[in-house]
Amino acid sequence: MSVFKKIALIVAVFAFVFLPRLVFAAEPINIGIIAEQGTLVGDSIVNGAKLAADQINAKGGIDGRPIKLFIYDDHMRATDAVQAFQRAVYDHHVVAVVGSWISEVALALEPWAARLHTIYITTGAADPKITQVVHNNYNMYKYVFQLKYNATEMAQTVCNFIRDDLVKQYGYKTAFVASENAAWTEPLDAEYLKCLPQTGIKVVGHMRFAPNTTDFTPIFTDIKSKNPDLLVTGWAHTGLQQTVQWHEAKYPFLIVGINAQASTSDFWKKSNGATEGIISQAEGSPAPITPKTIPFVKEYEKVFGITPAYGGYTTYDAIYVLAQAIKRAKSTNTDALIKALEATNYIGVMGHIEFYGKESPYAHGIKYGPSYATGVMLQWQHGKLETVWPPHAATAKVIIPSFVKK
Amino acid sequence: MNLFWQILFDGFIISSIYAVGVVGFSLIFGTAGVLNLSHGAFLVLSAIISWFFISHFHLPLLAGMVVGVLASIAVSYLLFVLLINPIDKSKKIPTTEKEIFILTATLLWSMIIEELLDYFFSSNPVVVPPFVKGVLNLFKMNITYNEILLSFASILILIILWTFINKTKTGKVLLAASMSHDGLAISGIDIKKVYILLWGVYGVLTGLSGALLASFLGASAQSVPSLTGLAFSVVVLGGLGNITGSILAAFLIGYIQTMTAYLISPAYTSIPAYVILVLILMFKPKGLFGRF
């Protein structure tokens, strides 16, 4: 073999072995993740994104291009989130930004997604205003998607569960609604007050408390004086103190509704097990919601040592939805990608995901209903997170804590 | 009638916990002249460390609290050795500006602790497990035995502190220091030893009260500013450096908050207390009970 041929062979071998890697490394698809790290839900958002990106990359990326995540902590502040969004677009040239569970933050990012023509998928913020803005001015806000149920739909899930389970099984008749004072709980409470009477439950009181409340004794004493069977909740920024104080003082009403942080095992530890008996809505749970759900939770627990909060399920699905859209669009061009995202038809870990069209009042929100995804109701039972509703995903029946009236 | 008892009991419990939480702030200002803006960070640090050792290493409750107190003492001495003493001794900083330098240093110290706690333990609150279990049903209230115990423990700590300062020889040195540092020097007392004693007592006090506070109200890195704010308000209300005044002011704020929660709305618990504080600052700048 001549010297020339030898060199050509070596070059060919090198090209065969390394060129795909070089090309692969040279053209990652950048995705920005903005989350409230240090909060249970925010941590789950980041972890869910990392897990999905790692899995996609391990299987060769998106048409050979790996996903590269750029993770930003907004410290629960809209100003930090806006700066992160700008950095993601200007410095890191992201294809899309995913994340944030705080509605006030997501609403602040919305105009920036419009101004910078960059796709933003919130995987944790529940305010229906996020998608109403898209419906009202589609051309300007078409960049924004909400891959989670909005607060109105969350309240419907809670009401459906109360109707199917608590009213039918236990004959509960009255409820008190108490939510933290935040943007997302306004539509939530409005829907609770509308849908609870339709389930046969009489609402005996309604209260909104400051998110910095730490002593819940006056609140619980007031609620107890109205003698409700159920305390229907909207808690996400708060949750721990009232859960512990309810458990320790053994108030005789059942807590059911949204206690967003309670969907992770970390919350169990931080409350020293006081979460026992609490029933909460969530986007996902360690249950056979779809064939993908349990393997995801197992893998998540293996990698991160805890089970995911709802933001983990939604963000994991969001990265896959985004990856498939890029694949279908055969491009990372924003307009092509929006069209591809709008055509999403994907079975994820939280259910069947499709987005509402621009004619819907929840434009670019995910479709909600029996043939799509409805969310689940969870309950901590003997230190284990069980799914108690809907029936097809249920892993256990509701257990009423010993101190709660039956 | 129930409402009266509810306000009386609930107000007493929350006020006694507030009192033990803020008394250290008053002590350190009264004695060393340091307005410690990292006070909230001390409370949260000891609470989280206690919780961590109880929850993760399965230490018994009291042993976990001891670790929290030790952490608080360590951070207290670190603050003194690394910041307060060097600023106090510095010849580059004019004497008139030292107070503001120390104030800023304690604020930065607070931010450092807050960020570290946030980084290592996240900003989610934690609750130190209850010392006792069980509920007392009284006047249609569910009062936990833990709340009653916390309240008595707080009062006991305050009595021990009061006795230590007013009745023991060592404690009287602290009292003397709060009146005149020069007087102490003339009496032949080494002011360095006084500081070592003082920052040690401060560490123990914040360590204990942090764990007590977090057993009822929980604690997180995010609650640092509000706890410092609470300490600051109570101490200004009571008269800066006046320990007895601070304790009385803690009860005043605790009861105003409880009455607001019961009689107006739990959504505005803190507002009336802060409005009263502003009025006191305007019309009685030395606080309700004055500087002693």
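Chain A has a mean pLDDT of 92.
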